[in-house]
Structure to design on (569 residues):
């Protein structure tokens, strides 16, 4: 069953791009579901995956034998690694969303690094007075009435920091 | 005479194109160019109704269909009016099950290695009509137990319906002896010849068999084609099967006057292209010679059997002697799932074999076996392929 779980995730992702993998994803789902409900997985998908991998390794008989004999264990290990990867990447993704919502950049309060949520690199612009050292300390000129990046309007207008704040005109 | 496999293989372009080692002919044989061309000739040159339309194309179709029936009849030494075209062996057996005049209490005797096609019709008749289905069990080595058969043969046995060559392990029953004994007893005999017709010479007159069913797709012919042979008088006495177009001479709103066999069993527009293709397959096999084909397959089976017998944990189903198993090598390997072995053969060396219970679930269940791997060879296979199969199987067995 374990290999079907891996298959389900891998084929579900690949299935976005190809109908062939969608069929395999369905098969993997059926197999996983049956196993979870204490029924036999009769699709043979696990055997096909195992055979596919073992056949690739047959040039190295020792490795092929090892994989053949320990396939379930290797599958369990891969599932654990996959779950850990999901947990870690999930944590960072959540943190990024939080940072973006709170600071306008997914990398944190004082970061100027690339943020996937903010592809243009531009951040929400502050109007009014902000603390120096805050992100970019940029202002939108109220008179330009522009949207970010549209129509080549000049929307960045700022005064250099003087003292602890910078101000928009 | 040894087969010129190089020449034969050129007639099967798929072998080269796909670089496949096709060891699954017991399931479905490959088709030579000649069969495909014969089928195409119907669609390209005279795609009309046979036996109905008076125009030229209709006449060509009628002639081609009649010629196909003649060729198939000749192939098994029958008369053309004893040949009913069916979709496959299964349909032929079902036709007998539905049309022979069974009464409650009649016995149908089969072997223990019947394909579901020759098991389910009798199970159904048991339920629907109250006939009795009895089984003649094989000897421990898988060969037919003639003594057990003779003991079971009594006056209640209306029909002996047996698989001529088993698709499970390749064993062939002693049909002549069985038929003689059955006839002495007053029983009829139906042979499931799906696995024997493609591989050995069958002469229905010499065998004196009453009914014989086989499929086209296992003998280089098209899918969806089959034949039921029956002695003409017996066919005449059968009840109707499917009725409709071309089964009748005349009808009124209340009555129908049926045609004699075989037409009375061939309702509706027939698979003309298929019948023509099947006849072309018969021609092809005749040209090569059934004795040569049988000899070639036995040689290949011997090579494979010798090569794989030394593999630890490998068990061949059926008799140990290759010559008793025709072109079939059915085996299990301890500790290796049969589907896994089949997949590995395919992925490692492009070898196509069948795995599972081969539609003989009943035998596997009775023997508490999950299934087997089955390699089945035919006229286009070579010794080189057999050697690759052996070497690949050895590598697979070493995985354990």
């Amino acid at each position: 069953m374990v290999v079907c779980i891996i298959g389900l995730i891998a084929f579900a992702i690949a299935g976005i791009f190809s109908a062939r993998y969608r069929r395999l994803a369905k098969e993997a789902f059926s197999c996983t579901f049956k196993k979870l409900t204490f029924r036999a997985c009769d699709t043979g998908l696990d055997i096909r995956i195992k055979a596919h991998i073992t056949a690739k390794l047959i040039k190295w008989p020792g490795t092929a034998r090892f994989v053949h004999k320990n396939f379930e264990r290797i599958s369990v290990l891969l599932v654990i690694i996959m779950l850990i990867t999901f947990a870690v990447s999930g944590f960072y993704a959540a943190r990024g969303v939080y940072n973006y919502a709170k600071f306008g950049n997914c990398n944190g309060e004082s970061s100027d690094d690339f943020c996937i949520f903010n592809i243009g690199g531009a951040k929400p612009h502050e109007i009014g007075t902000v603390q120096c050292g805050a992100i970019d300390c940029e202002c939108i000129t109220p008179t330009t009435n522009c949207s970010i990046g549209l129509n080549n309007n000049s929307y960045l207008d700022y005064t250099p920091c003087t003292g602890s704040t910078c101000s928009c005109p | 005479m040894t087969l010129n496999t190089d020449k034969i293989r050129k007639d099967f372009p798929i072998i080269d194109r796909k670089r496949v080692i096709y060891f699954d002919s017991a399931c479905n044989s490959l088709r030579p160019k000649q069969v495909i061309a014969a089928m195409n000739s119907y669609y390209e040159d005279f795609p009309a109704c046979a036996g109905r339309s008076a125009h030229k194309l209709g006449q060509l179709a009628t002639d081609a269909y009649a010629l196909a029936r003649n060729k198939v009849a000749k192939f098994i030494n029958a008369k053309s009016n004893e040949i009913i075209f069916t979709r496959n062996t299964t349909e032929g057996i079902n036709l007998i099950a539905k049309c022979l005049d069974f009464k409650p209490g009649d016995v149908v005797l089969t072997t223990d290695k019947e394909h579901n096609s020759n098991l389910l019709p009798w199970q159904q008749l048991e339920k629907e009509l109250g006939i009795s289905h009895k089984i003649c069990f094989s000897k421990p080595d898988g060969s037919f137990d003639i003594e057990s058969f003779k003991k079971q043969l009594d006056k209640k046995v209306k029909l002996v319906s047996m698989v001529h060559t088993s698709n499970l392990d390749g064993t062939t029953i002693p049909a002549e002896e069985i038929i003689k004994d059955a006839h002495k007893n007053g029983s009829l005999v139906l042979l499931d010849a799906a696995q024997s017709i493609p591989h050995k010479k069958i002469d229905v007159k010499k065998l004196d068999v009453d009914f014989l069913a086989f499929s086209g797709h296992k003998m280089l012919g098209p899918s969806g084609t089959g034949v039921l042979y029956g002695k003409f008088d017996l066919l005449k006495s059968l009840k109707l099967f499917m009725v409709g177009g071309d089964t009748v001479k005349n009808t009124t709103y209340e009555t129908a006057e049926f045609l004699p066999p075989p037409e009375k069993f061939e309702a509706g527009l027939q698979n003309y292209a298929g019948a023509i293709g099947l006849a072309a397959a018969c021609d092809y096999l005749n040209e090569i010679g059934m004795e040569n084909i049988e000899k070639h397959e036995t040689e290949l089976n011997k090579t494979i059997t010798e090569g794989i017998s030394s593999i630890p944990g490998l068990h061949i189903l059926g008799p140990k002697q290759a010559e008793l198993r025709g072109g079939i090598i059915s085996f299990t390997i301890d500790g290796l799932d049969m589907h896994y072995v089949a997949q590995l053969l395919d992925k490692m060396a492009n070898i196509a074999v069948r795995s599972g219970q081969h539609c003989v679930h009943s035998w596997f269940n009775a023997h508490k076996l999950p299934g087997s791997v089955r390699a089945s060879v035919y006229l286009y296979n070579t010794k080189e392929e057999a050697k690759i199969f052996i070497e690949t199987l050895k590598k697979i067995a070493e995985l354990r």
